[in-house]
Request: fold
Amino acid sequence: MQPVKFQNRTDAGEKLAERLLLLKQTQLRERDSQKIIIVGIPRGGVIIADIIASKLGAKLDIVVSRKISAPDNSELAIGAVMPNGSYFLNQEIVDTRNISLDYTQAQASAQAKEIERRLTSYRGTNEYDNIVIFVSTSVTR
Reply:
């Protein structure tokens, strides 16, 4: 599958909404289409998700994930923590830098607590019971 390029986030939201509207009209039963929720990652993903949700007449929500930073470089992501507390590591970086399991587990736990705090602050809950269309952004330089 070839990556799709868009002029900007608004263009991305418009074009993705067109494709998803066709999917909604042809593939989903009416009761299922009423359960659609568009989920964006804070910052760029929420902008795109908002456009899609508006076009589809769907609910808008967010998902909060947090990076696990390298001990000696807060900008270097060695992994990511998800809202349910699970985490993923770039094992190559972890191994190359000899980062301990204790460090990664402690960081994952701290980030999971921050995710919970943010979700409660932004949404009031972390419960999902809908069809979710997840929107993220990727920046190519």
Summary: The longest helix spans residues 101-123.
